[in-house]
Automatic annotation (TrEMBL):
Its EC number(s): 6.2.1.3
Catalytic activity from the UniProt record: a long-chain fatty acid + ATP + CoA = a long-chain fatty acyl-CoA + AMP + diphosphate; tetracosanoate + ATP + CoA = tetracosanoyl-CoA + AMP + diphosphate; a very long-chain fatty acid + ATP + CoA = a very long-chain fatty acyl-CoA + AMP + diphosphate
Organism: Solea senegalensis (Senegalese sole)
Protein name: long-chain-fatty-acid--CoA ligase
Subcellular location, record wording: Cell membrane
Length: 620
């Protein structure tokens, strides 16, 4: 018997070794698939629960289980689950009394990264309200647009953003919008202070009956995305999507004992859904910062015993650019979750800061398909497996970059890209993987729907992204198509930038696009412009327009003056050749200008400036 047991054990070991040789990612695949199935089963359970069990209910359960556990560390202050629960109840009651908010109402949150963001959102959720998360960098026209398309009748902001609110206040008042400031007092007519009312409100629990009609398909949030064209669009985020995104931490093996570091903005899906909602789902502690600081990042991680960090591609590059220290590997960070890191930066980051499991993601706020690189294979944004293909059907299809449209066969159907070939990612729209679209923008919603893909009448979500699947089933991001580029971790809509540029008196037309800069992630803004008859390029006026109306990441750093803009046969501005030519003055005959942040104007782009940018003497 002992001999047979030994033989069987030996065969098992040999079989496992053989499997590992043939399938090197077998362990990781099994672990990830098992976690995914468990999480999928939980989501199905939540869908069937009556009453519906939301992420808010998950938070309330956590507050009951461990009320004294720290939920958020912020600037030296600790706030427990119980304290956040009570504070959110006070917010809910103050708003209930002041505005008579009811289930289904939408409230715009124009707030920076701070604990009040968290309990304001929780307070709104307790009332069954929908929160529209406004980017606190936007101003003027963009701010009004974002506010309008979500249908909100109330906006809540903070004292540090008062100037931005005051700028659009006349329009808000015309529309009968109630404006509240998280401040003890406010002397501006049309803006009411809210902090004093919150302080006086009761912190007793609110009745679940206030949100009795909220279900898995109800809208939970509006998160803004630049998409492919135009001003930011309000992506509709259902409670089902909140749950699915919050599961990403669990899918990466993160537990309640981990400590999560959030320095990305909470108005983004990464900071809010993966970071904060994911922390609630796990019942863990988060370290919240107002904004990312490369110089303080690792000190924070050491101080608070951080085990999980979030990143965008630029985050890791900034960290790698800091002066090297002897204690670079002295920390407890074991997992990094994010997207957009270049292969060279990824390698440099690991070599310098230690064996951290990088969980690179691919996803879109409004999309119905996403990937996680759960193996830490450098360069990949995910991995395809049969479970995902079954539950969330998707494909890569051949795409004509010049025409910016899928290539179709003689029957008018799309053609699947071969393994190892770049193609446009599309996700089949089903009840299990829906595409809800954008609030108040049916036209842009329809643009993201792709019909007659593999058979007549089928319907897919067009991600607008070019990806590649290799022979090992790894997924690689290649490029973004359409009229959007990504810089500093933000999507920039080219038509919005063009609209601002043409407000300058000297500019007639503008063709905005993103160009690559050596050593930087994403593409930086550049514009080819034509001038009004008889006008010269007015450096200071153009600078004033872009600074007044665009956030820093969207401002075109390079301007190219052309006699005319080249158009396609359908009168679309051609960008491909301009993107390829870049901004090297040695190879471009047109006049070029550079946005000089120090001199606060545009200056002629010389070869010396170009060389300084290439050598990183000039920071972009």
């Amino acid at each position: 018997m002992y001999i047979w047991f030994t033989v069987l054990a030996g065969l098992a070991i040999l079989s496992f070794s053989f499997l590992k040789t043939l399938f090197p990612y077998f362990d990781a695949d099994c672990a990830y698939i098992l976690r995914s199935l468990k999480l999928g089963a939980r989501l199905v359970k939540y869908k069937k629960n009556k009453p519906f069990y939301s992420i808010l209910d998950c938070f309330l359960d956590a507050a009951r289980r461990h009320p004294t556990k720290t939920f958020v560390h912020f600037e030296g202050r600790e706030v427990s689950y119980g304290e956040v629960d009570k504070q959110s109840s006070k917010v809910a009651r103050a708003l209930q009394a002041a505005v008579q908010l009811k289930e289904g109402d939408t409230v715009a949150m124009f707030l920076p990264n701070e604990p009040s963001f968290i309990w304001t959102w929780l307070g709104l959720a307790k009332l069954g309200c929908v929160a529209a998360l406004l980017n606190f960098n936007i101003r003027s026209k963009s701010l009004l647009h974002c506010f309008s398309c979500c249908g909100a009748k109330v906006i809540i902001s903070s004292a540090e953003l008062l100037d931005a609110v005051e700028e659009v206040l006349p329009t808000l008042r015309e529309r009968g919008i109630r404006v509240y400031l998280l401040s003890e007092s406010c002397g501006i007519q049309g803006i009411d202070s809210l902090s004093d009312q919150i302080a006086q409100a009761s912190d007793q629990p609110l009745s679940p009956d206030l949100r009795a009609n909220v279900n898995i398909r109800s809208t939970a949030l509006y998160i803004y995305t630049s998409g492919t064209t135009g001003l930011p669009k309000a992506a509709v985020v259902s409670h089902e999507r909140v749950w699915a995104a919050s599961f990403i931490q669990a899918a990466c093996g993160i537990t309640a004992e981990d400590i999560f570091y959030i320095n990305l903005p909470l108005y983004h899906s990464a900071g809010f859904l993966i970071g904060m909602a994911g922390a609630i789902e796990r019942g863990m502690t988060i370290i919240l910062r107002r904004k990312f600081s490369a110089s303080q990042f690792w000190d924070d991680c050491r101080k608070y015993n951080v085990t999980v960090m979030q990143y965008i591609g630029e985050t890791m590059r900034y960290l790698c650019n800091t002066p090297k220290k002897d204690n670079d590997k002295s920390h407890k960070v074991k997992i990094a979750i994010g997207n957009g890191v270049r292969t060279d930066i990824w390698t440099e980051f690991l070599n310098r800061f230690g064996d951290i499991q990088v969980r690179e993601l691919y996803a879109a706020t409004e999309g119905n398909i996403g990937f996680i690189n759960y193996t830490s294979k450098i360069g990949a944004v995910g991995r395809v497996n049969f479970i995902q293909r079954f539950f969330f059907p998707h494909a890569l299809i051949k795409f004509d970059i010049e025409k910016e449209e899928p290539i179709r066969n003689s029957e008018g159907l799309c053609i699947t890209a071969a393994t190892g070939e770049t193609g446009l990612l599309v996700g089949k729209i089903t009840q299990r993987s829906p595409f809800i679209g954008y609030a108040g923008n049916q036209q842009q919603t329809e643009k993201k729907r792709l019909r007659n893909v593999f058979k007549k009448g089928d319907l897919y979500f067009n991600t607008g992204d070019l990806l590649l699947f290799d022979h090992e089933n790894f997924v690689y991001f290649q490029d973004r198509v359409g009229d959007t580029f990504r810089w500093k971790g933000e999507n920039v809509a080219t038509s919005e930038v063009a609209d601002i540029l043409t407000m300058a008196q000297c500019i007639s037309e503008a063709n905005v696009y993103g160009v690559k800069v050596e050593g930087h992630e994403g593409r930086i803004g550049m514009a080819a412009v034509t001038l009004q008859d008889g006008e010269e390029f007015d450096c200071s006026d153009v600078y004033k327009q872009v600074v007044n109306y665009l956030p820093a990441y969207a401002r075109p750093r390079f301007i190219r003056i052309q006699a005319c803009l080249e158009l396609t046969g359908t009168f679309k501005m051609k960008k491909v050749k301009l993107v390829e030519e870049g901004f090297d003055p040695a190879h471009i005959e047109d006049r070029l200008y550079f946005l000089d942040a120090e001199d606060k104007t545009y200056v002629p782009l010389t070869e010396d400036i170009y060389a300084a940018i290439a050598s990183r003497q000039i920071k972009l």
